[in-house]
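User:
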Amino acid sequence: MKIKIGTRKSKLALAQTEMFIAKLKSICNDIEIETIHISTKGDKVLDKSLASFGGKGVFISELESALLSGEIDLAVHSAKDLPLELAEGLEISAVLERGNYRDVLVTKNNSPIKNSSDFVVGTGSIRRRSFLHRLYPLVTVKDIRGNVDTRLRKLMNGEYDALILAAAGLERLGIYNSKEYTVTPFDYNEFLPSPCQGIIAVESRKNDERLKSYINLVNHQKTFYSFQLERAVPQILNADCGMPLGAYSEINSNKITLYVSGENCNILSKSADISESFELAKELTKKL
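Assistant: Predicted structure:
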């Protein structure tokens, strides 16, 4: 059977798509894969903040159109880039095992962060800006867009003194360790990540019986529980990328612990049975 998989053209998107294809082929040896590269609005407009021209949906709308038209069978996304609602008739049908959830501070070697106004940190995330100012209130935060390579080049050119990036992206590109820069991870107890950060999600048409059995084999159920819970947090609050919202969850046996943060960056947490995840999300979000 042939499966057409849609992906954005960035190095990270392609790396994540290859991870999904490798997992799929390791389980199913009777498939043929064709990768379709699709440009999205979010890849083309780099001189504006996401909140100013459509939010997270700008990274997936073209992929969703291709799914609905039948041009592709599956689309691979960074789960943290998904908008609050998917296009009608589509669903997230599988996720891979979660990668590194952390945000990291990237600085030139031998150039540690300084809590002063002349130290410039690049990020396009309101959440990252808020947490950074909680830890280093005097630093100057400057907006930045573009893929990981572009951002690192701007760091090395001196346009920024530091960047905040996702650890999973650096690891998947094979550039977490470098002689040119230093990567310092934050942990969730001081710097809560974006909901679903580090998770690769696969989107498909609902009730696509031809693919369902294959997709079910790939899905990592433990990560899917975390994906559903963390995704529920912004959905309950109707909060897209314009709100500094953080969420992370951990599973131990049949219990799941949720950590959330909002405008003031205070981190709240509570545990519940996995079967009560949605009630847990509602309870904690009410306190933000």
